[in-house]
Amino acid sequence: MTFNEGMQIDTSTTSSSGGGRGGGRGIALGGGIGGLLIVVIALFLGVDPGSVLPQQGGAGQYDTQGVDAPGFDTSQCKTGKDANEIIECRVIATGNSVDAVWAQLLEGYQRPKVRLFTQSVDTACGPATTDVGPFYCPGDQTAYFDVSFFDLLKSQFGSSGGPLAQEYVVAHEFGHHVQNLLGVLGRAQQGATGSEGNGVRTELQADCYAGVWAHYAAITKQESTGEPFLEPLSDKDIADALSAAASVGDDHIQESTSGRVNPESWTHGSSEQRQKWFTIGYQTGDPNKCDTFKAADLG
Questions:
Q1: Residue 299: inside a domain, yes or no?
Q2: Average pLDDT for residues 170-178, to the nearest whole number?
Q3: What letter would DSSP give residue 92?
Q4: Contact 270, 251 (CB under 8 A)
Q5: Is residue 6 part of a domain?
Q6: Which domain range does residue 122 map to?
Q7: Residue 233 domain flag
Q8: How many CB atoms lie within 10 A of CB 104?
């Protein structure tokens, strides 16, 4: 999926840093895609996942210690041409596009912040590392991305690696922000767990919201320039997004890391489910069709 070169990238909600230290305390909900790999490996080895993932405590507290190292220079990101050539700019520009779509679909939509980081970062949900993958923290309403994850998505998870595969990940995390604004994100930690649990339903809804964005991405115009953010999607673009969705399915990751599949430990949904719900959002463009919490059959 290619950005129109004339679109202007807005970096006003984006910050960047290198490796950080210290950390805040909070409740991390709607966690990232990559963190699942750590959980699966920990469970397979008989290790408590809590010992290898960031510590989480009471909400509302934020006590950052230490100073982040210099990060990516966001001033490099000016136009759609930069988004097509520089992966960090693509993340920011995708966020701009997702914001524009949801501003039309959701009354009172407020933009999340975006934080680009390398290796580690401090958040209102606690410290996190690259191993957790992209994630959204409701405590500071920020989507966090270490772009090295996109290489992992291709080399280790088997995604095709096209631009829309990367943009799908961004739109998914922004989907968690939409859930936060709607007041449903907290349901991820309530009720049953496993393949039919609210954690999986929360992640599949974010996949569906990513599909809703894709439905409108090429026809939503940037207010400042009057031109669409992105060029029309091709069949290959959609194949790239579906490839990314499949590559981070719980069953695919479990099979590739442990050789066995355990639906009771699922947190994000199977490859088939993730593809299904992205497709529902993409084909309908209707957020109301994304109510996974009421779905009798997740796929």
A1: no
A2: 97
A3: H
A4: yes
A5: no
A6: 14-294
A7: yes
A8: 10
pLDDT category at 288 given cuts 50, 70, 90 is very high
Domain count, the chain: 1
DSSP per position, 186-251:
GGGGSS--STTSHHHHHHHHHHHHHHHHHHHHTTPBPTTT-SBSBPPPPHHHHHHHHHHHHHT-HH
Residue 31 sits at the vertex; the CA angle it makes with 140 and 93, to the nearest 5 degrees, is 65
Instruction: Say which residues have a Cβ less than 8 Å from residue 289's Cβ, sequence separation at least 6.
Output: 208, 280, 281
Separation of alpha carbons 22 and 36, rounded Å: 23
List Cα–Cα distances, 55 to 52, 58, 114, 118, 124, in angstroms. 9, 10, 22, 19, 11
- Indicate the Cα dihedral angle 29, 181, 241, 293, nearest 10°: 70
Answer whether residue 199 is part of any domain. Answer: yes
Average pLDDT over residues 172-194: 90
How far is Cα 72 from Cα 120, in angstroms, rounded to an integer?
14
User: Could you tell me the pLDDT band of residue 69, with boundaries at 50, 70 and 90?
Assistant: low
Q: What is the pLDDT of residue 18?
A: 83
